[in-house]
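so im writing up the methods section and need the Cytoskeleton protein RodZ record in one place, dumping it here so i stop losing it
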Amino acid sequence: MSDIHIDDAAETAPRQASPGEMLRREREAQGLDREEVAAALNLRPAVIQGLEGDSYEEVPVAAYRRGYLRSYAHLLGIDDRPVLEAYKARFGSQETEHRITPVQVTRPPSKLGAWLFRLVTVLVIAGLIGLTLMWWQSRGGSQPPAPGNSGPVSVDSLDGSTTITEDDTSGDASLPPLPEEESDLGLVEDAPVVDAPDAAGAPAADEAAEAPAPTGDESAADDTAASDGQAATEAEPDTAAEAAPEAGSPAEAPAADRRVLELTFNEQSWTEIFDASNERVFVGLQEPGTTARVEGEPPFRLTVGNATGVELVWQGEPVDLAARAGANNVARFTLGE
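--- predicted struct ---
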């Protein structure tokens, strides 16, 4: 009978709570959740859950377990001794230390490797830019011509002669002097107009020499006639000189078109034109099928890309651009010197 009473007393005795259960009850009594406790202790929520469930897989080292339990108890404001005694009673003081698996730390790349990567990237970008420029230049005359790459340029002057000049590599060479208007008029004034009265006077002198000597009255009449003839002879050159500009007026009609250039673009071309005042009167990349009319003071300094696909008319006559084009199909020349 007494044995049965002792067994009932043992069964009714309160079971000692585990350390995790003590901490969990106090946390719930204070209205805190695991995330708040984990943030306050600077631990992961999984570690807090393991401490409350008496599962220490997240904390393999016994010294760390006791330290975490002590910190948890201090955070809740309770005495840590009952918690540690419950832990000791449940797990003992001598525990097998679990071997900690070393954590492999990935080292960041060295500065030398970063610099090498940047250098390779820059070289690749520079190579792509160079290939793009080479491809653009290989298209022909569609690109703006580079200065200093053209060969000799032949220039047709107004008198019909052809002059071959070297293109200035700097592109800023002074323009050739304008032709003087007196040189054009000199071609007309040099005509042998004045010699006509002299040629007509030669037979008259011969006839006068063959005629018999006149008498006094005849001599006076002859002197009067001779003076009249001399006056007429002197008047004839003046008349011829006045007629010379009038004769030259039809030749000046096409000269009025010397200020006009007409261009027809059959293919894409980059064209630039300067006039005598070194003023750029025309520039741009022209599309196929377009035309342009340019006015300025000659001589003109032209740079025509893709010259074989462009037609140029000046003073009503076509200008052969293909003959003036260099190896890169770009024509650089001066027109109207």
